[in-house]
TrEMBL record:
GO-annotated molecular function: ATP binding; protein serine/threonine kinase activity
Species of the source: Protea cynaroides
GO CC terms in record: membrane
Spans through the membrane: 551-576
Protein name: non-specific serine/threonine protein kinase
Amino acid sequence: MDHSIHACLLLVILQITSIAAVTNTVDVSALNALKHAWQNTPTNWVGSDPCGDGWVGINCSDSRVISITLSSIGLNGQLSGDIQYFSELQTLDLSYNKDLTGSIPPAIGNLTKLANLTLIGCSFSGQIPDTIGSLQELTFLALNSNSFSGKIPSSIGNLSKLYWLDLADNKLTGPIPVSNGSTPGLDMLVKTVHFHFGMNQLSGTIPPQLFSSNMVLIHSLFDSNQLTGSIPSTLGLVKTLKAIRFDRNLLSGTVPSNLNNLTNLSVLHLSNNHLTGPMPNLTGMNVLSYVDLSNNSFDATDVPSWISTSGSLTTLVMEDTQIQGAIPPALFSNPQLQTLRLKNSRLNGTLNITDFSVQLQLIDLQNNSIQNFVESGVYHNELILLGNPVCEGTGATASYCKSGQSMSSYSTSSVNCVPVPCPSGQSTSPNCKCSYPLMGTLFFISPSFSDLGNSSYYEALEGSLMKSFGTLQLPVDSVSLSKLNWDSNDYLEIWLEVFPSADDRFNQSVIIGISSVLSYQFIEPPPHFGPHHYLPYCSDSSVNSMSSVSLGIIIGAAIGGFLVLLVLTSAGFYAYRQRRRADRVINQNNPFASWDRSQSRGRIPQLKGVRWFSFEELKKCTGGFSEDSEIGAGGFGKVYRGTVASGQQVAIKRAQQGSMQGSGHEFKTEIEMLSRVHHKNLVCLVGFCFEQGEQILVYEYIPNGTLMGNLSGKSGILLDWMRRLQVAVGSARGLAYLHELADPPVIHRDVKSTNILLDERLNAKVSDFGLSKLMNDNGKSYVTTQVKGTLGYMDPEYFMTHQLTEKSDVYSFGIVMLELITARKPIERGTYIVRVVRVAMDKTRDLYGLHELIDPVILSGKTLEGFEKFVDLAMNCVQELAANRPTMSEVVKEIESIMELAGLNPNAESTSTSGTYEGPSKGTLYRPYSNEFCDYSGDYLPSIVQPH
Ligand SMILES: *[C@@H]1O[C@H](CO)[C@@H](O)[C@H](O)[C@H]1NC(C)=O
Ligand SMILES: *[C@@H]1O[C@H](CO)[C@@H](O)[C@H](O)[C@H]1NC(C)=O
Ligand SMILES: *[C@@H]1O[C@H](CO)[C@@H](O)[C@H](O)[C@H]1NC(C)=O
Ligand SMILES: *[C@@H]1O[C@H](CO)[C@@H](O)[C@H](O)[C@H]1NC(C)=O
Ligand SMILES: *[C@@H]1O[C@H](CO)[C@@H](O)[C@H](O)[C@H]1NC(C)=O
């Protein structure tokens, strides 16, 4: 190839005048082109000799650039076709730059020497170009955790040296390509050891041709796709396999009987499909450790015998299956057994746990038909028999008839030192040194164990991490693992913090080094962990919202964009760490003991209007918490709709086991607080339930759903400009009441469009006080708390200082106002609404020149009276400095004056009585506040007059 011609072209096109001293001129020009295309390139990228001057992230050999590794440095921009000019490039790694967007240019196919192409955790989209199949030297291809769409290019089949293929966590569709005549396919990848395709939208059947005895695959991971048809028996030919994941697809048919030929297989996930036929017979699979066959349609069967005789089983999950009969006692004595989850089946007879594995941590047999339990008194770990006959009647008080007991979970602790309080924003390392750690989540996709408390595993993982960092001479003081958790994909999530040893923060080259260790699986964890994905903690929204003032301060102290992120995130998570340590204590007492249930027909005398519901009643009125009655879900648990005995429709918010606030005392505090606030723009608490380990709040039912849902147009209700003003004034009044009239005052802490509900007449009602904080009466105008809230709505000042004031709610409300105007989410495609509006705003123009951003729904109506004042108010609410923001009552006044401008009477009831609205209440007589417990017509709000 003629380099000089290309160099000339580049010189012309890019007008690069500097001539390299040592580095090849084409490479210099191409690097300068990348530098121009990206923001946040390393600060030492200056001069004309990248190789000679040691540009961060660039490695050279014989004056040619052979490696570009720029992971986790906050690069912003697109990957341009200029990448093709690095003709000697072997490694291209741009992982963990959330702001890298656009597609991969087809010209990448020119990089014929490329061995590593690693673009993990960016925001690349579009199709993966076919030319990728020209990269004949490629051994490591990791494009996971982006937004790639379209089909998997069949040309990948030509990558005959490929060792690692990871396309997981994208939006890939279409079939799994296999070879056909001259068309290549994945079946040709006979040197590939890792197939990671989970979390996409792949469809079609699994081609039998995909697997053959020539292959050396160890991991075959296709979980969470839309694959149909049956599992081909050719899978049984790939003897090297250690982990198979086909769970969470639409697979049907019987499981091939030769699966037990796979004698190296340790992990098998087939759950959540439509598999039929006999339960697989896994006899003879001598290293099988983790098996999940849940939620399929296998034939009814007794507990299979292989389960009791397998010597290696650590984890058996068979929930929602048809297994029946008594549980053979031998099952528990599998020597490695840690977890047994067999809920929602038909097991019966007498449960007898006498001989059991010393490692056994959890036996979950909820909702079976077990009649008796022979308590031998030696098994003390978690056992759940809730929903079995043995838990009815007198048995119901036994500890195994409750759920929500806590299991121990590992977290790195300080050794041989006393943790010191650190300056705000820094964290204490396990060696008790204060610094800004690098933070992120490790996702282990196919571990062969399930015990979250076994410190020997996790200490070994810490050791492997430290060893890998040491090998590369990275200045790491220590690592900390915490927040261990099985996520909804059955991945083991571990929160990782890496602490610097030399300074109080890592420099860019070290961050790149650490990221590489994590992307290329250099760590050799104890073998049962298996491969992982890593994603650094990312709070783009918070960074974005820190514009102007506070950002300037931080940038002064930090070296680059990524460090800004570190500062902010450590602040957030320091508080979390502190709490975690205290969280272990679980209070078994009933804090409600002092409330006498028998009095006042179940009403609690101390709490005006709040009822005590029995778990049975709530279970009954939600059809056993059936999916049909589910109307919402979130981190806290689920929300159901039901009609209680009085005939009132209610929304029942049931805390998920594990998400609970810990002690019932906090729950009680929350109820007491909720029972004290009464306003027509706040959702009213009807009652609660605290029994059988459940924490349930019962609210009035608000029929028209969330503001967010209505803005997205899903509900079919047209929110025109007038109605939006009504919603704004209503929710502002609710918040003003909480801040200024409630006694003691309440800060909501999680104001957002999903927490504003609309009733029959589109009156706004603020909901979800789960995070609320009472203002103490201690003279301070703020409370110091752990940072909670929702990204995108969070007040940057609160985030920085942890000092919560009413103004934090004002900030969040400003975001909601911007949503009302634009109908877009606060963070969309990596951009933050405040910045988008601020940048687009031109006060000299009509509607401030925001036409492009305004929700077309309101734009199509008549003129937007008062629009500019509304925007001014919203932007005032999201002022950087809390002191510059208005109070909620000032906000109310201002919206009222805008309404008057728009010809609305701010004190009239909602406009939705006008015939245009046809909501669910049509045809039924509207009875305002018909329920006796949520009656605002009395003491609280004398001004409300509702037509009957
Ligand atoms: C890249 O490939 C295209 C066609 O495959 C070719 O025209 C072009 O010259 C190549 N560029 C370089 C720098 O080799
Ligand atoms: C691929 O990248 C890894 C990590 O930087 C490196 O160790 C390895 O040598 C690279 N492979 C080649 C062929 O450059
Ligand atoms: C694999 O399984 C099939 C069916 O169970 C059996 O006939 C065959 O002999 C097995 N092959 C090997 C190599 O074990
Ligand atoms: C399971 O397979 C083993 C050996 O392949 C066999 O001995 C046993 O009878 C089978 N069990 C059932 C229930 O089919
Ligand atoms: C347990 O279930 C099996 C199968 O449904 C049934 O045959 C058996 O009688 C039941 N045993 C008891 C004690 O109810």
